[in-house]
Amino acid sequence: MALGGFGIGLTEFVIAGLLPQVSGSLNVSTAVAGWLISGYALTVAVGAIAVTAATAGLPQKPVLVGLVALFVAGNLLSALAPNYTVMLLGRVVAALCHGSFFGIGSLVARRLVPPERASRAVALMFAGLTVANVLGVPFGALVGERWGWRATFWAITAIGAVALVAIAVLVPAWAGARRGGANLRTQVRAFRSTQVWLTLTATALGYGGMFGAFSYLAYTFTRVAGFSTTDVAWLLVVYGTGLVVGNIAGGRGADHNRDVTLLVSLAGLATTLVIFGLLASSRPASVILVFLLGVFGFATVPGMITRVTDAAGGVPLAASANVSASNVGNAVGAWAGGLVISAGFGYAAPLFVGAGVVGVGLVVMGVAAWGSLGGGSGTGTGGQREVKVVEARES
Predict the structure, then answer these.
(1) Radius of gyration of the chain (CA)
(2) Choosing a second label site near 25 at 20 to 30 A (CA), which of 87, 123, 135, 395?
(3) pTM surpassing 0.90?
(4) From CA 220, how far away is CA 331, in angstroms rounded?
(5) Among 217, 209, 155, which Cα is nearest to 336's?
């Protein structure tokens, strides 16, 4: 499943380094080619909920295999695309599997381990996505420059095919045989929970603040800190390395005390963004702070996923909704960051805006943690007991 996440992550990030080649090859403007990125993100936000809802009640292992098959088909379509329309269609098809794969996969992953290791299992599955964050753009640029942009999509298609076979062979049927809600009505009913909505809101705000700043980091590095454009690539690798570290640390911390880990991570993220904004002109500080941005930014992911699914009684739709919430946050955060730059506040301004957004997310998370006191959902294991109870009743 981590390999599948790696392939999906490559599909999402690799296009950024290939846009010049793709736009030239398919005879479209850079702005039109940009829809290959934004169209993918919008499809993820909508598809995560729609696809999960459409497969409600089906065994999860076959659904996972089907989602990876959809991913392979989308990238194959992109590799063969004779024109821009087909290329965009391939991106949309590949994006349809994104949110549901991570949402449903996180539930399957946590069933494979004891309750006290649930968040670490989710973190391991997401490890593929974080590694893709580090390697995605450089991988695409390297393969694209050497063999052409189509070769990149052929390589991703091959990765997807290997992941499909691996999931079909290695994921035990019992881990994906049941769902936390037998039908769509049961899954939708879970969204009556205030804790579900508080967690989704905190997820959107946390991601929105981080990616609102991240979207303009290249300008911050070059226009404020004085780095050259060639330095941006390795600086983004530093950021991606932080994501990997944060994912592992966040998973371990969430298994120990989930709500405390989430509160500390959001507080650390807000603090990092403020300090980054104040010291953005310093090159040494920028290197350290962009690493911490990745660490604190992704440390929330395993805990948020397990928290929202526990609050919802283990239904897959809640896990997929968490992925949608993060993508909505990404879009809104990038929009807000662009607004302050357009208003003339400078290229460090998105860092302060991001800190403010994350600060609101911290307050929301604090309300959620306070509301869950005594209910067990703030720990690493209490919420999973609720999931086990639901599954036992279904069995």
Answers:
(1) 20
(2) 135
(3) no
(4) 19
(5) 209
